[in-house]
Amino acid sequence: MVKSKEALQAVYAERTPKSRMQWERGKPVMPGGVIKSAYWFAPHPTYMDRGDGCYIWDIDGNKYVDFTNHHTATILGHNHPAVMEAIQKELERGMALSGPTTLEAEIAEELIERIPGVEKVRYTNSATESAIHIARMVRTITGKPKLAKFEGAYHGSHDALEFSTAPSIDQAGPEDAPNTVPAQPGMIPNAEDSVIMLPYNQPETVDLILREHKDELAAVFFDGKPAMMDIPVEFSQFIRDITDELGILLVYDETVSFMAGPGGYQGEAEIKPDLSMFGKIVGGGLPGGAIGGKSEYMDLLDISEGNEGPFVSGTFSGNSMTLAAGLATLRALTPDIYAHIDGLRQRAHIGLENAAERVGIPFHILSAGTMINAYPSSTPVRDHRSYLNIDSDMFERILLGLTNKGNYMGRGHMSMVLSAPMENSDVDRLINAFEEVLNDQD
Predict the structure, then answer these.
(1) Is the dihedral of CA 106, 108, 110, 113 positive or negative?
(2) Which of 75, 181, 331, 437 meets the CB 3.0–4.6 Å disulfide criterion with 167?
(3) Where are the alpha helices (DSSP H) in 192-334?
């Protein structure tokens, strides 16, 4: 069942000859032929021409339902009227005004009203920047040198935390004492000595590790991974309790998990972290990030009148275009919109489960907020190591098969992302295509 990769790639190549030509054009002038690192299923990327609502069109004229949504960044879909109007208004005022605007307070107030653990906000250019600055903040606040994170979690591309994001089993070390493995070549030598690795879904092990290192740990960085891993809310609550007890700061990574609900994952879990990092949704589809947290910690960033603290700023941090798009996005995410998306999520979850049962292939299906994953696995995906046990070849072939049938799919943990403009009919077509792909043979 499910066509071979070679057969699926042949279908893809026949559908996208202009994308192939564009890729070849880019090779002499860009590493890998593209402007940034890109991941694709087939022999070449799909080059996009335009988007509208929940649909996108490639340069060959193929229409897709967009189930990537820019890695959860475009929750309202493409060209949402309120977002486009807000950006146009800012364009008419000027692209860069060299000083604060009223939008800063407006979006900060919106985030504070929505998110339990946020009392003050500082904008950055990306979630990666937010993580870099938070790493400095927690060391400054506590005077402790080390950070802890969970195996399989990604908190941006930087030397402070980019460890064990996807280690192979032979690198990862014991399950109850994971190695800290640099994720990239060229990282600062011995930087791994400053990062303690924790396993998801093992409270007893986490308790032991944190107690052992409590006097040198400034903070635990945590991503609840909703719809990506089967992590119960009780584990998240345990992490809050143990860090409170041991005097270790808790940092929530809401870059992706903000899609879980109006207050992000922390709102759904009813937890107040000490600091949080944001990206994607808060930029309304434009580049942007944010740091939020308790006033007592955020005030460290106030360096006016001779105060000393980490310098968190940048030419484009909190630029008016991003703030306008982000504010319009947040205000458009009403309770009715969340209810609509949740209805789509439930429909997709049940439909994919039923289709898998009819075909007779075991799947572990997870969903939350706007995101769904259908892992070809007979066992739950509870952490990075269990994710490595899924049938990755079948997973990739399924996603490519769905793309060939007009559903533009993501990869890895973000394979299916819903958006507000989608309707039941879009979800039903995905379910039908899923069953067809599972039944297809060469």
Answers:
(1) negative
(2) 181
(3) 203-213, 233-246, 264-269, 295-298, 320-332
- Length of the chain (residues): 442
Nearest to 236 by CA among 341, 137, 117, 136: 117
**CA proximity to 111, closest of 355, 318, 344, 412:** 318
Distance CA 332, CA 405 (A): 31
pTM above 0.85, yes or no: yes
Residue ranges and CATH numbers for the domains of the chain are 5-75+334-439 (3.90.1150.10), 81-332 (3.40.640.10)
Nearest to 133 by CA among 322, 324, 314: 314
Contact 382, 203 (CB under 8 A): no
Unique residue bearing structure tokens 């635990």: 220
Closest CA to 250 of 114, 128, 150, 126: 150
Q: Is the distance from CB of 155 to CB of 131 less than 8 angstroms?
A: yes
**Position 5, amino acid:** K
- Residue 429's region, left for phi above 0, alpha for psi from -120 to 50, else beta, is alpha
CA end-to-end distance (rounded Å), the chain = 9
From first to last of the 442 residues of the chain, give the pLDDT tens digit: 899 999 999 999 999 999 999 999 999 999 999 998 766 777 899 999 999 999 999 999 999 999 999 989 999 999 999 999 999 999 999 988 888 899 999 999 999 999 999 999 999 999 999 999 999 999 999 999 999 999 999 999 999 999 999 999 999 999 999 999 999 999 999 999 999 999 999 999 999 999 999 999 999 999 999 999 999 999 999 999 999 999 999 999 999 999 999 999 999 999 999 999 999 999 999 999 999 999 999 999 998 877 788 888 888 898 999 999 999 999 999 999 999 999 999 999 999 999 999 999 999 999 999 999 999 999 999 999 999 999 999 999 999 999 999 999 988 888 899 999 999 999 999 999 999 999 998 8
